[in-house]
Amino acid sequence: MPELPEVEALAGFLTEHLAGRTVDRVHPLAVHALKTYDPPVTVLEGRGFDGVTRHGKFLDLRAGDVHLVVHLARAGWIRWSEKLSDAPPRPGKGPLALRVRLTEPDGGGGTGAGGGNSSGFDVTEAGTQKHLAIYLVRDPQDVPGIARLGPDPLADDFTLEALTALLAGERRQIKGFLRDQGTIAGIGNAYSDEILHTARMSPFKLAASLTPEQVAQLHAAIGSTLADAIERSRGLDLRHLKAEKKSGLRVHGRKGEACPVCGDTVREVSFSDSALQYCPTCQTGGKPLADRRMSRLLK
């Protein structure tokens, strides 16, 4: 699942590649993915994108007074092409959900500018579980998921004091706390595992039980983990972003491998609707967590 660092990289890539281009044609192909109908996506045609930003895991492409907002969910992605075929894509059972064909900076390319292959991007979703969401809105706050987002962990106002206030009285496990988009925006399953490993903290620890020193460790781990991931992704082609994410992870998705810090074996337990990975030596005092969904909390 794309999380904050990958969406940040997508925003940077698109900012660079959309410059000087206008939308020639928009082809919505997956009805289930399109969550809004007024205004229709065709109002993008003839406009240029004048800003690309991120709200948590939501990608926001601004075109004048409208915003094309995309949530990639578990298996969505953006694919850029310098040579899209002029033939309109056919709806079907493939991964393509939305195609945006662009004119070139010099005015060439695109069916509306004299024909010929042109650049553009596809929004795709693999797999059978379809959770990709595409919106066209006047205000990003009209997207329910954006309206409920918590603070951005890379914002200047996400201070140690701000995190301390969020944790006060919080009775959830710290893993669930970090993943809740209404609490902190942009952190998902993978980077919550990485943050907790860096902070040397059990994923089942009660959030409200953290000492001031542990809160400071967690705050530092959030900042460093996300910043490092963004730096590794900077300037990469979209085709290589997913592989870069996986290669940079130390415990997430590494069940059975050696922890790069202490050499212990990375273990896995079920958590909520997914699985988490952790290092017993680094995070739980050497004690393995019970591998069942209703495991007792480790203090």
TrEMBL record:
Coiled coil: none
Family listed: Belongs to the FPG family.
Alphabetical list of CDD domains matching this protein: BaFpgNei_N_1
Cofactors named for this entry: Zn(2+)
Domain Formamidopyrimidine-DNA glycosylase catalytic positions: 2-93
UniProt superkingdom: Bacteria
InterPro entries registered for this protein in UniProt: FPG_cat, FPG_N, H2TH_FPG, Ribosomal_uS13-like_H2TH, Znf_DNA_glyclase/AP_lyase, Znf_FPG/IleRS
One of the Pfam families matching this protein, by short name: zf-FPG_IleRS
Protein name per UniProt: Fpg/Nei family DNA glycosylase
Record field: catalytic activity: Hydrolysis of DNA containing ring-opened 7-methylguanine residues, releasing 2,6-diamino-4-hydroxy-5-(N-methyl)formamidopyrimidine
Signal peptide: none
Keywords annotated in UniProt: DNA damage, DNA repair, DNA-binding, Glycosidase, Hydrolase, Lyase, Metal-binding, Multifunctional enzyme, Zinc, Zinc-finger
Organism: Streptacidiphilus cavernicola
Sequence ranges assigned to domain FPG-type in this UniProt record: 250-284
